[in-house]
Write a structure and sequence with these properties.
Distance between the termini of chain B: 41 Å
Structural class of chain B: alpha+beta
Oligomer: heterodimer
Order of helices and strands of chain B: HEEEEHHHHEHHHEE
Helix content of chain B: 25-40%
Strand content of chain B: 5-15%
Radius of gyration of chain B: 19 Å
Number of strands of chain A: 23
Number of helices of chain B: 8
Shape of chain A: globular
Largest sheet of chain B: 3 strands, antiparallel
Chain lengths: ~500, ~270
């Protein structure tokens, strides 16, 4: 009897499985008969393939004055990709890049969307475009197993700048791992003319290791739930908009930024140091409802469009003005503007006079003690020159990477600092005079007046979140760059000071 | 597309197969199979709670294959069951990727090491293999029950080493050539490769997502999209469980995926 009932159960299961298959096939064949793929799109429209670009580039403005049938094809791929120097992460991507490709269509266009999931993918994926009017924003129609492709179509009935992202469970993890991008639905009459357009997208990465920990990093669910990301970045990596990837423009030009914030958790207080946004299309809508804005809020899962006229040359810093994200977690970028100076608008430094505040630290008891310790350390270094077993050149090279992600925004790429605000490192007597002090400042931060090259600075440097090796590397770099020269810093040397100043 | 006639033919075929298998298994009795491990009774907590669904499911003790079925084992099966060879298989029961990593019908080739888990097999093919071994596929409840322990703990969530291993596997894309089975540590029950090597077919994969109630007809809910996927989730922090749920619900019974294999189960 038991066997028989088991047989019955087996037959029932098979029948259920098959009937659901049959129902699906029947439904499919009906769909096929009455509405083949793309049948919702008027047949008389011109067909074109969307120009897709990788950040920070934006496809050219659309000059068409009538709707088109636009084909968009995006491949989902899971790839190892650089997150920061010497740090990699397994990103899940739309189109192999983070953020995903920028899509530009026109209000009223019909979009035939193809989502292909690469056979090497571990997981199924889909796409939710906030520009889609319909359940799931396309997610219900694009759920795609590895090695399969899906197709759906929609009409872009609302203009604006929209985010898209993967919406497969668990959604926050898919977003945190890199599955997002922007789609611009241009209003029928187009966007006002500007000289340059760029695509910048903020997001967080929840790595298992702390900021800067080298090697391949995994996803950390606890940090994600706690909303405590080691990385807050622009365009998918630390340094995606600095160094040779700095954005560029010329004096006299108007620049527009298409900004997105993928989150998955944080809201961005987007700021461009040294510029004021002439127009802000708040939350990515179609009206420039605000003018003369310093910092604009970009919601997680939202966008903003800003434009500004450039009057003065120089380097402008893109930042999340939640500042520890900018200075300690990577949310920094640069816009380099070239052209003639305009001293009426910005004079540059005009007066630099001595101002005597507190006594110089060199004269204090602590300063003398530092000098004694320094002598001991120097002796140790001389007797054991290969302490860390690292060449000075390698340390300088690694240190430069740290400098360009953590230090340059204040001390400037040329180490000259900003007069009266941030002291120089280049030929800095303060830096070069005392190795232990340099380590301590890096490790513990420094607030209050200091005298550097005879000039008084009274500001604040936060403690830097670095490993002992990173501290040694960046100090070796700054004391051997910008005209400076010194013995390399060793991990042991750092550790001595670290232990000495550590509260534990 | 598939005609209804094909389906009816398929229905008869599979029902016939099941009947024959069941009769055979009755004749052979429940003799223990080598390389099967007994999984004690336990509890499975479905991923999503729903007023129409029990919040926990009791799992009877059963036997589960210690490791996924290998290419070599599946080759033996298609040798004796010609209709499951790559060139002979009915398209209704396996899509174009069926055994596509094999060199030929009866030759594994360099992309299919003999001791690597067989992948690119459909649910139909996996069931046919299981039936030929006088076994069956595990249910979701059974599979999840068997996959609960860690390496050293009855409850894997308390085994940090195991949790990290699972998360590490989830983080990397599928290799072009799958590694061999049993290369990782066995779990507390002596089962290998659960959550560490390939996805695995289960008998009732297409019931993975809760349906019914007011959300019954909504694909949105069934497929765990966006917020709908988190409403009613038992433990939203267990992202590995979500990934398995999403994976299962993306499948259709004829799909053959490069990272999807199976292992057999047997009732006690």
């Amino acid at each position: 009897m038991k066997k028989f009932s088991r047989l019955l159960a087996a037959a029932a299961l098979i029948a259920v499985a098959l009937s659901s298959q049959a129902a699906r096939a029947a439904a499919e064949s009906e769909t096929t008969a009455s509405s083949p793929p793309g049948s919702g799109i008027p047949a008389n429209l011109p067909i074109e393939h969307a120009v897709l670009t990788q950040a920070p580039n934006v496809p050219p403005p659309i000059t068409r004055k009538t709707p088109a049938h636009v084909i968009v094809t995006i491949e989902v791929k899971e790839v190892t990709r650089r997150l920061a120097d010497n740090v990699d992460y397994w990103f899940w991507t739309f189109g192999g890049d983070v953020p995903g490709n920028f899509i530009r269509v026109r209000e009223g266009d019909y979009i035939e969307f193809h989502l292909n999931n690469h056979p090497s993918s571990k997981l199924p994926h889909n796409i939710d475009l906030h520009a889609v009017t319909g359940p799931g924003g396309g997610a219900t129609s694009s759920f795609t197993a590895p090695g399969h492709g899906s197709q759906f179509s929609f009409q872009a009935i609302n203009p604006g700048l929209f985010l898209y992202h993967c919406a497969t469970a668990p959604v926050p993890m898919h977003v945190a791992n890199g599955m997002y991008g922007l789609i611009l639905v241009e209003p029928k009459d187009g966007m006002p003319h500007v000289d340059r357009e760029y695509y910048v997208m903020q997001s967080e990465v929840y790595t298992t290791g702390r900021y800067g920990e080298t090697g391949l990093q995994g996803f950390d669910q606890t940090k994600a739930v706690d909303e405590n990301p080691p990385y807050v970045i622009f365009n998918g990596s630390v340094g995606a908009l600095t160094g040779d990837k700095t954005l560029s423009a010329k004096v006299g030009e108007t620049v527009r930024l298409y900004l997105g914030n993928a989150g998955p958790n944080l809201v961005s207080s987007f700021h461009l140091i040294g510029e004021i946004f002439d127009n802000v299309y708040v939350e990515g809508g179609t009206s420039a409802v605000q003018h003369n804005v310093q910092t604009t809020l970009i919601p997680a899962g939202g966008t903003s469009v800003v434009d500004f006229h450039l009057d003065v040359p120089g380097t402008y810093i893109l930042a999340d003005h939640s500042l520890f994200r900018a200075f300690n977690k990577g949310a920094l970028g640069m816009l380099k503007v070239t052209g003639p100076e305009n001293h009426g608008i910005y004079s540059g430094k005009e007066v630099d006079a001595v101002y005597l505040g507190a006594a110089a630290p060199e004269a204090t008891a602590a300063g003398r003690r530092e000098a004694t310790l320094q002598a001991q350390i120097d002796a140790e270094m001389k007797s054991n020159p290969k302490i860390a077993g690292l060449t000075k050149e390698a340390q300088i090279s690694r240190g430069k990477q740290i400098f360009m992600s953590s230090c340059f925004a204040c001390h400037q790429p040329d180490g000259m600092g900003l007069p009266g605000v941030f002291p120089p490192l280049a030929k800095s007597d303060f830096l070069m005079a005392n190795r232990e002090r340099a380590i301590r400042v890096l490790w513990k931060g420094l607030s209050g007046p200091v005298t550097v090259n005879g000039k008084e600075y009274n500001s604040s440097m936060p403690p830097q979140e670095l490993t002992e090796q990173q501290a040694a590397d960046v100090l070796t770099f700054v004391t051997n760059s910008f005209g400076n020269s010194a013995e390399p810093f060793t991990v042991d040397e750092i550790r001595k000071v670290h232990q000495d100043t550590s509260p534990h | 597309m598939y005609s209804k006639r094909h389906y009816i033919a398929g229905l008869f075929f599979v029902c016939g197969l099941a009947l024959a298998t069941a009769m055979q298994s009755r004749a052979q009795g429940d003799r223990p199979k080598p390389d099967f491990v007994e999984v004690p009774a336990g509890t499975y907590w479905p991923l999503l709670k729903n007023t129409n669904e029990p919040s926990e499911v009791a799992v009877e003790p059963f036997r589960l294959q210690a490791a996924p079925v290998t290419n070599a084992q599946f080759l033996e099966f298609v040798r004796t069951h010609p209709k499951w060879r790559r060139s002979k298989v009915t398209r209704l029961f396996a899509d174009n990727n069926y055994l596509q990593h094999w060199k030929d019908d009866l030759e594994l080739g360099p992309k299919a090491p003999p001791n690597a888990p067989v992948v690119n097999v459909s649910w139909f093919a996996a069931r046919a293999y299981a039936a030929a071994q006088h076994a069956r596929l595990p249910t979701i409840a059974e599979w999840e029950r068997a996959a609960q322990p860690g390496f050293t703990e009855v409850d894997g969530r308390r085994d940090v080493v195991w949790t990290r291993a699972v998360e590490a596997w989830l983080a990397v894309p599928t290799p072009e050539i799958e590694p061999n089975v049993k290369q990782t540590r066995a779990n507390f029950l002596g089962l290998y490769d659960l959550n560490l090597l390939v996805w695995e077919w289960v008998e009732d994969f297409n019931t993975s997502m809760v349906t019914g109630d007011s959300r019954g007809d909504s694909t949105l809910d069934r497929n765990l999209f966006c917020g709908a996927g988190a409403a009613g989730a038992r433990d939203p922090s267990d992202y590995a469980a979500f990934l398995r749920g999403a994976m299962r619900s993306s499948l259709r019974a004829d799909y053959c995926l490069p990272n999807l294999g199976f292992r057999c189960a047997d009732s006690l």
